[in-house]
């Protein structure tokens, strides 16, 4: 995972010393250099260095993001977790640079414009509010993460292997989450529609609907007879004795929110209260059956969900694997001790 320091060429050594001077860490005598000064540089990842200043800046961000980071090893100290956070980000930056993935101001603006269009939002203020609501982050925090998310998405497409879930995975998820896949419902519906908008007609029809409900509530077996009679004002429903055959709760919601809401509240064999639908008709329904949405109807959706869940795990594993390919040097004593990284001593000789 981590590489032993290799001998430096003259140019590399001079650059290291110059960097140290810039950070103000070479004022101590040479004997104190490795013990005090070099530790101001926590690590180097490729050509990128991680300093104590970077660590200080990252503490607040890590604290805010920690609830979104699902692969954190909480057995490790906070310092080690933050340093690992910085190293992983630096690895992503290093590989993105190799792959010519660049995220500049123009790219960020383009990404935001695309997301605004997808969300149907025209003003930046509305967009910021929507982002805060959907992400659970402040907009400033979300925006600070956007460059990393763009790089992550690009690397996921071109570099990270993503194995699709198996049929066994899909069936296991379906069996464990039947309550989440929704349900299909079979019901009968009686519709009573007012002939006009007058108050007297509304009153008459409401009373008629209430009388019908009272009648079928007393004898539920009569519901289909009434639904197939002239008392049902919807000719299509009347021809089927009010039957609406198996339909998913989602499709029913798209067709009529009022009917979907009424159906969801009624148990099998139960009869709803009188309610008005979107066409201002008075309705009563009897639920004949409910069942979980068949797996064939949701297989693709479950597969996509599992792919998204595995994407994060796969990306995390891939980044960890890349640590063996990107040159990494650690100078933080506490991190080295906790992670059992051996101490190597080298003498730098300037030509």
UniProtKB/TrEMBL annotation:
The keyword Signal applies. Residues 165-299 form the PpiC domain. InterPro entries: OMP_Chaperone_SurA, PPIase_dom_sf, PPIase_PpiC, Put_pepPro_cis-trans_isomerase, Trigger_fact/SurA_dom_sf. Keywords: Isomerase, Signal. One of its GO terms (molecular function) is peptidyl-prolyl cis-trans isomerase activity. This is Peptidyl-prolyl cis-trans isomerase.
């Amino acid at each position: 995972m981590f590489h032993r320091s290799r001998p430096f060429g003259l140019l590399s050594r001079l650059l290291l010393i110059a960097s140290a001077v810039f950070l103000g860490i070479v004022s101590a005598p040479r004997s104190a250099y490795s013990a005090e000064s070099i530790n101001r540089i926590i690590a180097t990842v490729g050509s990128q260095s991680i300093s104590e200043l970077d660590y200080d800046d990252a503490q607040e961000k890590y604290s805010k993001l920690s609830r979104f980071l699902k692969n954190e090893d909480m057995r490790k100290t906070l310092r080690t977790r933050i340093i690992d956070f910085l190293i992983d980000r630096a690895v992503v930056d290093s590989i993105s640079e190799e792959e010519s993935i660049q995220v500049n101001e123009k790219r960020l603006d383009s990404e935001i414009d695309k997301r605004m269009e997808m969300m149907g939002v025209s003003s930046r203020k509305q967009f910021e509010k929507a982002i805060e609501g959907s992400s659970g982050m402040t907009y400033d925090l979300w925006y600070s993460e956007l460059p990393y998310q763009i790089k992550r998405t690009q690397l996921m497409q071109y570099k990270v292997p993503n194995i699709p879930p198996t049929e066994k995975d899909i069936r296991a998820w379906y069996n464990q989450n039947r309550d989440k896949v929704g349900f299909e419902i079979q019901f009968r519906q009686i519709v009573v529609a007012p002939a006009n908008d007058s108050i007297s007609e509304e009153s008459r029809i409401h009373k008629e609907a209430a009388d019908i409900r009272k009648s079928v509530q007393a004898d539920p077996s009569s519901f289909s007879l009434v639904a197939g009679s002239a008392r049902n004002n919807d000719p299509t429903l009347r021809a089927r004795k009010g039957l609406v055959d198996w339909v998913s709760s989602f499709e029913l919601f798209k067709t009529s929110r009022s009917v979907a809401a009424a159906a969801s509240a009624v148990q099998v064999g139960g009869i709803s209260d009188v309610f008005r639908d979107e066409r201002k008709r008075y309705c009563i329904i009897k639920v004949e059956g409910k069942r979980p949405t068949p797996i064939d109807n949701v297989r693709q959706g479950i597969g996509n969900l599992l792919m998204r869940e595995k994407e994060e795990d796969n990306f995390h594993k891939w980044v960890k694997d890349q640590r063996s390919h990107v040159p990494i040097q650690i100078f933080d004593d506490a991190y080295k001790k906790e992670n059992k990284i051996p101490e190597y001593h080298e003498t730098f000789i300037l030509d």
